[in-house]
Amino acid sequence: MTGVPEPMSPDARRALEQELSTLRTERDTVAATLRGTDADSPGDLADQADELQRATEAARLDSRIAVIEARLAQAAVAAPPAPGVVGVGSTVMVRFADGSTTAVHLGEIADSTDSALVTADSPLGRALLGRVAGDPVSYRTPEGPKSAVVVSVGSPSGEA
Questions:
Q1: Residue of 30, 25, 23 lying closest to 57 (CA atoms)
Q2: How many C-beta atoms lie closer than 10 Å to residue 92's C-beta?
Q3: pLDDT confidence bin for 140, thresholds 50/70/90
Q4: How many other β-carbons are positioned within 10 Å of the β-carbon of residue 44?
Q5: The domain over range 91-153 is classified in CATH as 3.40.50.2300
Q6: For residue 92, which of 75, 116, 122 has the smallest C-alpha distance?
Q7: Do residues 106 and 129 lie in contact, with contact meaning Cβ atoms separated by under 8 Å?
């Protein structure tokens, strides 16, 4: 994200905590199958391949669990943005260079049910973080550089 701890919306926190719980359950299931093998028996190549696949899955789960735990810990120590300053959870009215105005919600990927979601680590999201009403922003997209102006900043409850 921005390199500094970012707060997290309550919905995003709940979604990540649910994902973490599911991943831990999956990890426990995979770990039980790893512990259930007899390391002294030679087994055949299929058994060894299956064991390797389970170990790889356990490592993948461990990696995702570590990412989620780190993000939750980071959010726990982050202070919310000052009133009127764009931060995670803010609803921002943005006027684009073509004159169109759109309300976007700056959030986490865990907020993906939000149709107005702009993730904080997207080009527009990074450009908006820390801005206030009236600030111009520039960001890069696959189509090239873009610009916009922050019209208003709402609270994390969504009031613009």
A1: 30
A2: 26
A3: very high
A4: 8
A5: no
A6: 116
A7: yes
